[in-house]
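Input (structure):
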């Protein structure tokens, strides 16, 4: 037997090598992320993603219940980025979305304060942009949209493309309970999402206990504007004990994402609104939260979800999507 073959039979050595490779791959991931981070350079892609983030922030504020005058700093930042953007960005969907969101924002401000100097100035700068700067700006209006309030039977009868296009992130919920039977069915359907080697490593943890719910609400990112009193809050988790080797370091997040997307579509099918809430916290914050929520030792949080019966006359961020040509290629 060769030396290599004999070494492979040493279980302790194999475990040590496997763990060393985990550290190596995570270090490579960290180096790659640091190099390409959103604030890392002047590429058109950096410009466009920053425009999209600012646009969504303003749209979300426009959809808040009893929205007040807000967003002056972000609106000014977005306007400046549109004015300074590269030719490539000016031909992108992001640019069109940014200009339309600012138009909606200035309309909103003027509806609250007729003689608002800043809103008028930004609107003037928008109108001064070159006419060919908004190539995708035909046939859509960014800002907010009416939340389609359909019962489960109405959603279920829609053609698939209308069903998918009709879903929006819902943050305003009516004071009506979500049926436990409906929730159980939606979870069962979400469990049909693809799972690596059918390990079924993903779980859904719903927290109705007031203390746990408040802890989660204050820790998750993106809970602004979510009706705390009338929503239900949950996290989608994965069990790190299911992961086999360094190449699977991101497998849990992938499986959790597939589960979460199937879940929110299932909720919509039953007439239940939902909003996925980013979990962008530090590892230390996650461990504190996991302890406070009594998660299992190997559980990691992938994403949060607020859900409930949608408010009948609520509004939602329009969240216009980019053009297909910008995300699709064949090589």
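Output (sequence):
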């Amino acid at each position: 037997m060769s030396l290599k073959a004999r070494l492979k039979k040493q279980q302790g050595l194999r475990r040590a090598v496997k763990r060393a490779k985990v550290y190596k791959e995570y270090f490579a991931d960290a180096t790659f992320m640091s190099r390409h981070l959103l604030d890392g350079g002047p590429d058109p892609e950096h410009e466009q993603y920053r425009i999209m983030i600012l646009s969504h922030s303003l749209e979300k504020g426009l959809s808040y219940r009893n929205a007040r005058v807000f967003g002056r700093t972000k609106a000014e930042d977005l306007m400046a980025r549109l004015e300074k953007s590269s030719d490539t960005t000016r031909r992108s969907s992001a640019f069109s979305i940014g200009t339309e969101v600012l138009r909606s924002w200035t309309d909103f401000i003027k509806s609250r304060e007729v003689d608002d100097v800043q809103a008028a100035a930004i609107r003037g700068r928008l109108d001064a942009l070159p006419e060919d700067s908004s190539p995708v700006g035909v046939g859509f209006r960014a800002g907010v949209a009416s939340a389609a309030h359909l019962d489960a039977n109405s959603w279920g009868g829609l053609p698939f493309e209308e069903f998918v296009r009709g879903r929006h992130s819902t943050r305003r919920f009516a004071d009506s309970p979500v049926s436990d039977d409906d929730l159980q069915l939606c979870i069962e359907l979400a469990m049909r999402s693809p799972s690596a080697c059918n390990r079924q490593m993903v779980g859904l943890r719903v927290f109705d206990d007031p203390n746990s719910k408040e802890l989660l609400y204050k820790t998750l990112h993106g809970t602004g504007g979510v009706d705390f009193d009338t929503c239900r809050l949950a996290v989608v988790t994965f069990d790190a004990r299911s992961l086999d080797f360094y190449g699977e370091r991101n497998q849990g997040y992938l499986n959790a994402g597939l589960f979460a997307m199937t879940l929110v579509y299932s909720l919509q099918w039953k007439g239940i609104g939902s909003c996925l809430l980013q979990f962008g916290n530090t590892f230390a914050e996650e461990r504190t939260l996991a302890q406070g929520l009594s998660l299992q030792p190997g559980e990691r949080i992938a994403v949060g979800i607020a859900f409930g019966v949608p408010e009948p006359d609520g509004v939602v961020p329009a969240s216009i999507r980019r053009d297909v040509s910008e995300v699709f290629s064949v090589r």
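Notes: The domain at 152-315 is CATH 3.40.109.10 (NADH Oxidase). The chain has three domains: 3-36, 44-142, 152-315.
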